[in-house]
């Protein structure tokens, strides 16, 4: 595709504006590590929430969501639970405030508040930094896979997808290196506004050009049903025969079983807490624990426009690409629905704005990931073990170098990823399998110690290197891979803890009093009460669990309401709005009105 000069101009102006923001905030960001990586804990919760949502609104993920909706219809809206997307509501209900009460800079620094600074604590800190770097490199590779495909379709020069990915990601890295968290958040806000505007424009074009009746005639029976049985029961063979093999390869045929496995996996990942990436950094950057909870609530709401865009792109694809796909034989790359639709069915001028918006979405995710990776590498390895007493300016410069190194590694792994789906499955199933067990236990079991954390994570990461070679790379096979890695890691956690001494009571008492988790903390609670008879146990477990269930019901309509509106399924639309309003009322009464008053107080970093 050859872009019109107007579209090229819009994209160029956008890139120049983003780089200008990085330069403008460079001086402020370089004052200290707190300023560079957490913006000094001075950003309002709603800005952090929109920024976090913008960071999740990436090109690669949007291509994947369009593919899921196109192929699987409303049932495809369940597939983001693979990440899982409902981890945000569990953060919103209770976990974000637990994390923020620690008052630290990174997730690895948080480890010291739980396991202390002894040998076990140090080993735990090192292993979480290693995991953080592996996950950040994995996300860079994931972004690389989508960016290359996307850019090859639109940008006018005859370069390979990999070359395009390197160029665009390198430009993005410049403003991240210059401005740190401040530039990331400011540009995230600009990017969110652009993408929300683009979403409305694309959905409007789709609704004008495609009627609900036209779409229904091109879709298989059951496509519009969000409910499901044990089997997928979607038959594309008479409409787009090539899709039949794609669905077999995806491995979602026994969708009921897949859903149960996906839900169980998602619950464990969610209660483990935020992984050491941009999500964790946004929580730690909040001004208070209470605002950290508000920030996580905003994330789910702020992703609403993304589903408007996904619905609009899919509707255009159903009408205008279905005949093209139906005529093709052999392997068809259905992940390209989004770029195909933009290149053929969006008018000049709007294409430039939409491309700028999608590039913005990519830059938002990528920049946040890169910023988080630099924080772990510099704060938790370099500063702690290599150069302890350098100036703030020295550590900021070291952050530039660290993020450049992460970028190069991500490019290398990106070159090895064959598809967006492959990169997605590796992150959400295999990598998270090595993370989950240790990070569930750290919150809920007082006997869990630093050695248990280290060996659980070590066994998990070792299994991540082996298990993907032994199990299928999609569907129930990949979820089975998660289960194998999770169980192996769990054994490492338990044995590592029981075969070594427990953590010092003073460390555990301090953590228990500050974070106030519920779980198996009985002996530590008794010690705390002996010293402070007025201390009260966290008794909110039943309410938290009820609110988590209601919040998931609250989140689901935020995904499907835009789809029902764009496809003009009015009955389902009004039912979804009703569910959303009822869930909102319950959450207002049972969550928002009862957020702890102590969580309204700021928690400063030790020594900050």
Overall body shape = globular
Radius of gyration: 24 Å
Number of helices: 26
CATH class: Mainly Alpha
- Going by CATH, the architecture would be Up-down Bundle
Beta content: under 5%
In total, how many domains does the architecture comprise? 1
Give the class from helix and strand content and strand pairing.
Answer: mainly alpha
Count of extended strands:
0
Explain what the structure shows.
The protein has helices spanning 5-24, 26-29, 33-38, 45-56, 59-72, 87-100, 107-115, 119-154, 161-209, 212-217, 242-250, 255-271, 278-285, 289-302, 304-320, 322-326, 337-345, 350-386, 392-414, 420-444, 450-466, 475-498, 505-515, 522-531, 541-566, 570-590. The chain has a single domain (5-417, 538-600), classed as Sodium/glucose cotransporter, CATH 1.20.1730. Mean pLDDT is 82; it is low at 35-39. It is mainly alpha-helical and 608 residues long.
């Amino acid at each position: 595709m050859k872009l019109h000069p107007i579209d090229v101009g819009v994209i160029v102006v956008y890139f120049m504006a983003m780089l200008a923001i990085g330069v403008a905030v460079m001086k402020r960001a370089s004052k200290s590590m707190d300023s560079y990586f957490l913006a000094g804990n001075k950003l309002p919760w709603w800005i952090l929430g929109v920024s976090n949502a913008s960071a999740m609104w990436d090109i690669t993920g949007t291509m994947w969501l369009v593919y899921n909706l196109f192929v699987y219809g409303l049932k495809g809206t369940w597939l983001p639970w693979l990440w899982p997307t409902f981890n945000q509501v569990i953060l919103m209900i209770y976990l974000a405030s637990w994390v923020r009460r620690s008052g630290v800079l990174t997730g690895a620094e948080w480890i010291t508040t739980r396991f202390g600074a002894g040998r076990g604590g140090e080993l735990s800190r090192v292993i979480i930094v290693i995991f953080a770097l592996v996950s950040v490199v994995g996300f860079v590779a994931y972004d690389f896979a989508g960016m290359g495909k996307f850019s090859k379709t639109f940008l006018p020069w005859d370069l390979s997808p990999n070359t395009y990915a390197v160029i665009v990601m390198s430009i993005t890295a410049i403003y991240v290196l210059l401005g740190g968290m401040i530039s990331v958040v400011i540009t995230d806000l600009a990017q969110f506004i652009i993408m929300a505007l683009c979403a409305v424009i694309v959905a409007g074009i789709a609704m004008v050009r495609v009627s609900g009746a036209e779409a229904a005639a091109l879709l298989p029976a059951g496509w519009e049903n969000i409910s499901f049985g044990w089997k997928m029961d979607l038959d594309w063979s008479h409409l787009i025969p090539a899709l039949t093999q794609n669905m077999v390869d995806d491995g979602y045929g026994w969708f009921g079983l897949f859903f149960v496995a996906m839900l169980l996996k998602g619950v464990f990942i969610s209660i483990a807490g935020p992984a050491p990436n941009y999500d964790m950094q946004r929580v730690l950057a909040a001004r208070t624990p209470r605002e950290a909870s508000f920030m996580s609530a905003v994330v789910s709401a702020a992703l609403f426009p993304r589903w408007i865009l996904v619905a609009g792109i899919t509707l255009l694809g159903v009408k205008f690409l279905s005949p093209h796909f139906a005529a093709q034989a052999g392997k068809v790359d259905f992940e390209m629905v989004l770029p195909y639709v933009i290149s053929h069915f969006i008018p000049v001028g709007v294409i430039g704005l939409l491309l700028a918006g999608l590039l913005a979405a990519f830059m938002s995710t990528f920049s946040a990931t890169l910023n988080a990776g630099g924080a772990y590498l510099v704060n938790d390895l370099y500063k702690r073990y290599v150069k302890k007493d350098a100036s703030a300016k020295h550590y900021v410069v070291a952050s530039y170098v660290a993020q450049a190194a992460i970028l190069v590694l991500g490019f290398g792994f990106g070159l090895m990823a064959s598809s967006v789906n492959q990169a997605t499955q590796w992150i959400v199933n295999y990598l998270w399998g090595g993370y989950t067990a240790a990070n569930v236990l750290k919150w809920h079991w007082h006997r869990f110690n630093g050695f248990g954390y280290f060996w659980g994570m070590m066994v998990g990461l070792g299994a991540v290197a082996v298990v993907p070679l032994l199990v299928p790379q999609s569907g129930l096979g990949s979820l089975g891979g998660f289960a194998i890695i999770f169980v192996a890691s769990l054994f490492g956690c338990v044995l590592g803890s029981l075969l070594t001494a427990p953590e010092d009571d003073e460390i555990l008492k301090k953590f228990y009093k500050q974070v106030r988790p519920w779980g198996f903390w009985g002996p530590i609670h008794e010690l705390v009460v002996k010293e402070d008879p007025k201390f009260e146990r966290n008794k909110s477990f039943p309410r938290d669990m009820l609110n988590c269930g209601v919040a998931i019901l609250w989140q689901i309509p935020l995904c499907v309401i835009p789809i029902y509106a764009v496809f003009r399924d009015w009955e389902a639309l009004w039912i979804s709005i009703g569910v959303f309003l009822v869930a909102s009322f319950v959450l207002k009464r049972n969550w928002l009105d009862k957020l702890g008053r102590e969580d309204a107080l700021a928690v400063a970093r030790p020594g900050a």
